[in-house]
Structures are given as C-alpha cells and as structure tokens.
C-alpha cells in the first residue's frame, strides 16, 4: 500500500428535510451569498427551503451559474462579493454550482494585482478562501465532500481543474428528495460520473490494498444495481439516497487512500467538453472504453479483478475476459442511454484527437497512473473514441 494522509473536514448532513439544519451550520452575523444555477432549485423546493432557513439572515442571491461553470460568470460574483463584503458562500445545486462557489471563494481573496485564472492554468496555489457550504441537488461529482473544482473559460475554450484544502465545504447538506426532479439524462450522467470516479482510483494496478478494492467494488455494485432502477422509479427515496451516498463516497478521498490514481479519462473528457460542450459524464463514457483498450496491458490485473468481482466474468483467456469486461461496462452505459462514441454526437474523432494532441504538447501534459499518457498517447486514445 502507498503512503497516505487522510483528512476530510466536511460536516455531512444527510437525509429527508435536512435543509432545516442550515441556519445552525452557519456562523452568526455574517453576510451570505447564496449561489445557484439556471433555476432548477426553484422547481424542486431547494430554493424555498434554503430561503426559509435563511430568513433571519443577511443574504445576497447570485443565480445563473451555468453547467460547466464559466470563469467569466464566477468573476462577476467576485466583483459583487468584494463590493458587498460577503463573508460566507452557500452553493445550492449540482457540481457546477458547488465548483463555481469554490473558485469564487479563492478568487475573491486572490491578490488583486494577479489574475485568478492562474490558479487553474498555472497551478498558482491560492493562499486564502472565503468559507463555503453547500446543498446538493444532483448526485454525481462528489464536489460536496471534496476540495476540487473544474472551471471553463469561454474566451480560450479551456476547461481546467484545481484542488486545494482551503475549499473543502464547511458543511454539505444532502436531501435525496431534491434529486426526484432530475431529468433522466442528468440521473444517468450522475451514475456514470460516480462510477468513473471509482475507476480512476481503483482500476490502475494492484497496490496490496484489498479494503480499498472492496470499497470501490461495493460502490460500483450498488450503482449498477440501483442505477437502472432509479431511472424507472425516480421518486423512490431509498434508491435516490443510495445513489447520493455512492456518488459522495466515490470522490471524498476515502477510496483513494494508499492506491495509485489515474484521472486520464477525466482530463481527456474535460478537453472534449471544452471543445464540443458535451456533458461531463458523457465525455467520460466515450473516453473510458477506448482508454482501457489502449491501456489493457498495464491495467490487465485490475481489469480482470473488476470483471470477476463486479460482473462475474471468468474466462480461460485473459484477453477475452478483459474484452468481455469492457463490453459489459459499455453495455451498462448504453442501458442508461449514455452513448460511448464520438460518432454518436457527430464528432470527427480524428479532428478531436489532433486538437487534443496539440493542446497536450503545448502544455506538456502527462497523465495516467504510470505517467505514460502524453500528447501522442492522448491522440491514439481519442482517435479510437
Ligand atoms: O442549472 P440548474 O437550473 O440548477 O440545472 C442543472 C443543470 O442544468 C440541473 N439540475 C441540478 N439539480 C437538479 C437539476 N435539474 C433538476 N432537478 C435537480 N435536482 O442539472 C444540470 C447539470 O448540473 P451540473 O451541476 O452541471 O451537473 P453535475 O453535478 O454533473 O456537475 C458537472 C460539473 O462538475 C464538474 C464537471 O466537470 C462539470 O463542470 N466536476 C467536478 C468535480 C469535483 N468538483 O470534484 C469532479 C467531476 O469529475 C467533475 O469534473
Ligand atoms: Zn467526473
């Protein structure tokens, strides 16, 4: 097992009608900015419940945060925060709103002489952040219980990530009932995203870490058993609750302890979103099978274990077992109506691969658990998508 440190400071409040706890979780006498997206929270009760819990408090609203949140929008919030002396951020929505709040939290306190985009593009570490909390309405990203954020910049067609312990939410409120109103597409996206978070931390090479493997497989099996059911039964509380808990557990740092991590599927997927505006999870479902086939030798042991433990796949020929495992995963994504090829979106794979190779070469990007996915490997993988 690799060395590790684990500290997740997020106070999680999970269950039915728990937004009522919001006021107690906030520090007293502080001006709050409540951030949200395009308005879904006004249809599922999250907005009303949040405002009811905050009725005695000094609150400014900031709505209109886009899916794949824009740097430009975040900077508008930063201007207001600086002007209005806001002291705490409450994000109400999916991963995009929570990620935006995390970036806004550090950008607002970044030295004014510098460009906060450097936090993302030049990995300049932020030194201070406004405190933030969140109310989750879309189980998918795990952003509610981690310290990562992904921001897109329209002007340069880039989508870049940063992570810093300063932006762990002080609290995360998860009421699975808010996810009842998710459109089928977002429910499916969330399940696929959470599964691929698990794969990024589990499907690398063996690290003598059986507990982490069993935890990862437990999350995958629960999502595989519950995912199609929840698509058919969107108002089943327990099914929604299990999807919520799986997606939080998939990316709160626990299953990453002591194991190698990949994240190449995500980084390649972010390029596809930046270039073609595809939903985050949909890019991952496209990249993952091609990446696994490309990396099948390096990942062979874990692909065989995953196939056996999760799908019950046994074959005399390891190559056949690996192919059957990848095919089973693709079939599951298709069952959730999530396509797995660029052609399904009428995107030319050769063109995408060429552009991503250029970007990786310019930035000197190297990815994967073995640091062996550079510009040329990225080209090969995307070309096969
Ligand atoms: O904007 P509103 O009106 O709220 O609508 C949203 C949005 O259109 C809607 N929605 C959210 N909750 C709903 C709902 N609709 C009905 N009922 C509800 N209860 O769903 C749409 C998508 O929302 P979004 O927040 O964009 O989705 P998601 O949670 O999948 O977040 C995606 C973003 O998170 C980043 C992605 O790259 C992407 O930018 N990620 C963040 C990570 C992290 N911080 O750790 C890790 C992930 O790998 C990912 O990269
Ligand atoms: Zn993801």
Describe this structure in words.
This protein is α/β, with parallel strands linked by helices and 385 residues long. It has helices spanning 22-25, 46-53, 71-84, 95-107, 117-121, 184-202, 210-232, 237-250, 264-276, 280-294, 300-311, 318-335, 349-363, 375-383, and strands at residues 11-14, 32-35, 59-62, 88-93, 132-136, 148-153, 158-163, 171-174. It contains 14 helices and eight strands. The chain is globular and about 65 Å long. It is 47% helix and 10% strand. It has two domains: 11-178, 3-Layer(aba) Sandwich (Rossmann fold); 184-383, Dehydroquinate synthase-like, alpha domain, CATH 1.20.1090.10. It binds 5,6-dihydroxy-NADP (NZQ) and zinc ion (ZN).
Question: Which terms would index this structure?
Answer:
6-stranded parallel sheet, 14 helices, 2 domains, 385 residues, binds 5,6-dihydroxy-NADP, Rossmann fold, globular, Dehydroquinate synthase-like, alpha domain, 8 strands, alpha/beta, two-stranded antiparallel sheet, binds zinc ion
Order of helices and strands: EHEHEHEHHEEEEHHHHHHHHH
The profile of the biggest β sheet is: 6 strands, parallel
CATH topology of the largest domain: Dehydroquinate synthase-like, alpha domain
Question: Total strand count, please?
Answer: 8
Per CATH, the superfamily of the largest domain is Dehydroquinate synthase-like - alpha domain
Name every ligand kind in the structure: 5,6-dihydroxy-NADP, zinc ion
Classify the helix fraction into a percent range. 40-55%
Any guess at the CATH architecture of the largest domain?
A: Up-down Bundle
Neighbour order of strands in the largest sheet: 1-8-5-4-2-3
Rg, alpha carbons: 20 Å
Q: In angstroms, what separates the terminal alpha carbons?
A: 33 Å
């Amino acid at each position: 097992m690799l060395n590790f440190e684990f500290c997740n400071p997020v106070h999680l409040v999970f269950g039915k009608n728990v937004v009522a706890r919001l006021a107690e979780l906030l520090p007293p006498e502080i001006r709050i900015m409540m951030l949200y997206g395009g308005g879904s929270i006004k249809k599922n009760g999250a907005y009303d419940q949040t405002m009811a819990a905050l009725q005695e408090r000094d609150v400014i609203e900031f709505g209109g945060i886009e899916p794949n949140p824009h740097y430009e929008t975040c900077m508008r919030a930063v201007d207001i925060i600086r002007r209005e002396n806001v002291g705490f951020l409450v994000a109400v929505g999916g991963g995009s709103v929570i990620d935006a709040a995390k970036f806004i939290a550090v950008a607002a306190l970044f030295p004014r002489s510098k460009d906060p985009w450097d936090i993302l593009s030049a990995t300049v570490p932020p030194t201070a952040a406004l405190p933030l909390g969140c109310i989750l309405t879309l189980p998918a990203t795990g952003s509610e219980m981690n310290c990562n954020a992904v921001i897109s910049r329209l002007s340069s067609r880039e989508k870049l990530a940063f992570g810093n312990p300063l932006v762990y939410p002080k609290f995360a409120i998860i009421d699975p009932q808010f996810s009842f109103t998710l459109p089928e597409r977002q429910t499916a996206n969330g399940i696929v995203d959470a599964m691929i978070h698990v794969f990024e931390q589990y499907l690398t090479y063996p690290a003598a870490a059986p507990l982490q493997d069993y935890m990862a497989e437990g999350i995958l099996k629960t999502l595989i058993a519950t995912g199609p059911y929840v698509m058919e039964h969107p108002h089943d509380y327990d099914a929604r609750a299990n999807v919520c808990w799986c997606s939080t557990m998939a990316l709160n740092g626990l299953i990453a302890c002591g194991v190698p991590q990949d994240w190449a599927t995500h980084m390649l997927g972010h390029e596809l979103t930046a270039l073609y505006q595809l939903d985050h999870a949909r890019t991952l479902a496209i990249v993952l099978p091609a990446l696994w086939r490309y990396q099948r030798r390096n990942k062979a042991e874990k692909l065989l274990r995953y196939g056996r433990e999760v799908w019950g796949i046994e074959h005399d020929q390891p190559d056949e077992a690996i192919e059957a495992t990848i095919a089973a995963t693709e079939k599951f994504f298709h069952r959730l109506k999530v396509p797995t090829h660029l052609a399904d979106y009428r995107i030319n794979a050769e063109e995408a691969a060429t552009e991503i190779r250029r970007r990786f070469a310019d930035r000197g990007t190297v990815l994967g658990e073995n640091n062996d996915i550079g510009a040329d490997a990225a080209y090969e993988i995307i070309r096969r998508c």
